[in-house]
Each structure stands twice: as structure tokens, then as C-alpha cells.
Amino acid sequence: MLDIRNVSLTFDPGTMDEKKAIRNLSFHADKGEFITVIGANGAGKSTLFSVISGGNRVDCGQILLDGNDITNVPEHIRSRRIGRLFQDPMKGSAPGMTIEENLFLAAGHGGWFAGVSKSDRERFRERLSALGMGLEDRMNHKVGLLSGGQRQALTLIMATLNPPDLLLLDEHTAALDPGTAEKVLKVTSDIVRENKLTCMMITHNMQSALDLGTRTVMMDHGNIILDYSGDERAHLTVNDLMKSFREKSGAALNNDRMLLS
Amino acid sequence: MEFLETLLSLGQSTLEQGLITSLTVLALFLSYSMLNVCDLSTDGCYALGAIVGGMVAKGEFPLMSGVSPALLPFLSLLFAMLFGAMSGFLVSLLQTRMGINSLLAGIVVNTGLYSVNMAIMKGSPLVSIARNDTVFTLTKKLFKGTPLYDWSAVIVLALIVALVCVFLFFFLRTRLGLAIRATGDNDAMVKASSINPIMTTTVALCISNSFTALAGCLMAQFSKSADVNVGSGVVTIALASLLIGHTFFKKTGMGLRIFGMVVGALVFRTVYTVALRFNMPAYMLKAVSSLIVILAVFVPYITAKTAKRRHFSEERRSKNA
Question: What pLDDT is recorded for position A260?
Fold first, then answer.
């Protein structure tokens, strides 16, 4: 499914601010895997997503999606097969346009000169009503009027309207209040399960990293240092995770946000 | 009776001028309101449309030598739009592929167009089409002897403006139109989606500038001449009209917002005509349009600011109480 081979990325090379964000990273994800990604701030989690989705071009190495080399494919072309959600709920939808218009853009079929059809509208209604937020009755409301949680849920629907080959979730619930975050997380795992999506999710919540999904990887200094799946993962606790991090990286996990959650 | 006649003729010329301006306003509606790019090449593009249109109508443009004179007024509109689209393409190329800031891209193209326009007129500062047919003379011939005769120009212009409005209305509902709106509405979203912002910017600027050039061409055909300075200040006049239209139809659907652009242009022209009747010198047009743009941006800004301050001072007061 996704194959990352010896990829490196350096920011500001040759300057005083030079930062090796990704260091010779290799990684393989199988079809249908739901991988949670954890790691301290600056470990390279978001950069890895950006490398996969084409926001940043790599210095060296190869990225393959379903066997196709996409290393040099521009971001907007990769977006046809890779869905993405960000932490900021404002980033994923156009506030001045209606819910229906946003969904239609995301649906992306029927050619450039097509308009919203009746069957599109029905499909949108059906998907929105699954959220249980009442958005299906507000299709002609501007997205700017929605709350952060509603907007993030809408973005999730937009990203999965045509099931993508790979769904990248970059702490997409971190900016929401705990109740809403839980709701959006539940919707997320439902959608991923129903559509059998391959998904990677960055989270700062170590417990939900272990609860959700089928595999957990931990990043540090631009590489993947821990990788758990199957039985091993099923019996893993947050404490085990922290202990093996200390052994592996030789440093305590000094990240308040991660310890507290 | 004489008063009524004056009023009627004033109303007629206001309509004619306003409808021509409204095409530029609709162009800016697409680039400024939808795509969120302030296209400062508008002045030059308007003149380009006027001059290309003038030269074609006169039959002095390349390829026009053997063409039947009856076709020339229509080819004039077509060629003006084509050249306008090319100018828009250049502006988009500068800002999307060559790293030039969008304001600067417009200004640079605007300046360059002066030379291009002079070159198209082969160095003469003026093109006169007084002895050639225009879409207006052709309709006048068509309406000869009917009561519509005096209003033929208004009818032609209203028809063209209506066509452009209807086009915009349906275009902005297509996937391409929505993609253009999204590009102007949320840059971050578009970058992470499968929409190529370079493509949407290019398409929007080409269409918008073809309308600007169409306005210039109609102005040339209407006044039977064009000179290299015909576009000077057009961008501010159009922006003033756009902002007037925007205040009237802010919270309405897309159809009314588009219609509002035409209303804005007509209101602007009416205010200007009235001011002229009160002996305002004609050269004040540009100062008036500048002032309207300044006020239309400043007034909402200052009201929002004072409303915020009032909100917090009331909150403080209620806490202290």
C-alpha cells in the first residue's frame, strides 16, 4: 500500500537553521491498516505526513503508493488518492461557501462544468445524517457559521466522500473540546472501519493511540523508533510505551502534553 | 416638459455609461470578490479592449483586410475579449509561476500594456471609428422608425450585461466556479485538496479580464473612438461601484450579489451625473471614485472597531457594577 524507502528531508539546508526533520526513514503500511502515530513535539510526525502528501519534497529516497512512485507527483494530484485533515478546523473547508458547495467540490466528479445534481444532494444528506449533528438540514448554510467540531466532522466527510487510498489525520481533534473530540473520534473510527480505509493518525493522547486502530508507531528525531501491532500491541499499556521509549531513545519522554493525556 | 426631456436623456446616458462600467465591475467581482486577487491591470486591459476593438472595427487589425464590414463590429467584441483574456493570462503567469506578488504583477502588466496599446495603434495616440459601423449603429439601423430607436444603445448594452450576469451565475455553480471561489475563500484548504490553485487563478483572471476588455471595446464602439488613456482610473471607478453594490446585497444569494454589481455601477453613475448637474467639474470623477472606495472600506472598519470597544467597555462596566 504505502512504501517509504530511505527518505530524508532537511529544512533550510546550509543555513544556521538547518534542521534534519526526517532522517533516512523507511516505513511500510499494508492496506486496511489504521496506524496511530505518537511522538514528542518536533519528532517529525507532521513533516512525515507532509512528505507523504506532497507538501514537502524529499531530499532523497522514494515514496510509493500502491506500487506507483509518487515521489515527484505534485500535491494536488496526490490529493486525489490521499485525504488529509489538520488540527485547525478552519483549514479544511471554505467558510464563505455552503455545506453543499463544499461537499460538491470534495466529491470532485462529473467534470469541471457539472453542477450539484439531485443524486449528489441525496448522497450528501445521507453522509451528513450519519454524523448525528443535524448538518443534513443545513446544507445551504455557510460553513463559516458552523462550530469547530461541526466543521471538523464536515471536513472528515469531505475527505472520505470518495474513499481515499490513504487518510492522514494530523491531530484532527486536538483543537476541539473533550466532548466534541470524542464524538469526532468515534465518527472517524466508524468511517475508517466502514470504508476499510488505510489510515494514519497523529495523536498526543497515548491512551487513544493504543485504543484506536490496529498498529501504533512512535517517532523520535525524524525516524520511527517503535512499532507495535497485533498481540504485542493488544497487551501494551501507556506505561510500557513510555518505558520502551526511554530505553530506545535514552531520554525521558519530557513532553507534558503527552504525559498528562 | 423640457425638464422631463432633460431628465430622460440624463437617465439614458447614465444607463449607457453605467451598463458599460458594470461589465468591468462584474470582472472585478470575479477576480476581487471571488478569487480574492486585486487585479491592478484593469486600467490597461480596459484600454487594450478599447484599442483592439477599435482597430478591428476599423478593419485595420491583422487578418481583417478581407472581412465583410458588417461582421467587423462583432469580431471587434470577440477580439477584444480574446486579447483581454491573454492579458489576464499574463498577469496570472507572473503571480503563479514567476513568484511576482499579485499586486505587483497587475501593475507591471498595466504599465507594459501602455506600450502594447500604442504599438497596436501603430504609434498614433488615437483610433477613430467615426466612419465605421459599430454594434450600436447596426442596432440603430435595425430599430429605425420604431419607438426603440433612441434606446437602442441601452438595449444592446442591457442584453450583453444580462448575458454576462447569467454566465457568471451558472459558471459560479459549476465545479470549476466553486473551485475558483474556494481558492479565494480558503487557500489552505485548496492546497490540501485536489484543486490546482494555479489553474483556478489562471482561469478566473482570463475570464475576468476578457470582461474588462469587453467593457473597453463597448466604450470605444459607443464613443466611436479610443485613445491610450481611455482606461485610466477605471479600476477605482469599478471598485467603487463594486463596493456600493456589495453594501446593498451583502447577505443575499449569489444571483442577487451578481445583480448587485450592476446596481452598484448604475448607482455610482447616477450619483456622478447628479453631482455634474450641481456644477461639479467633470474632472472630479476620479476623486469621487477614490473617495467612495476609501469610505466603503473605512466605514465598516471603524464601525467594527468601535463596536468592539463599546462591547468591552460595557462588559467592564457591568463587571464593576
Answer: 46
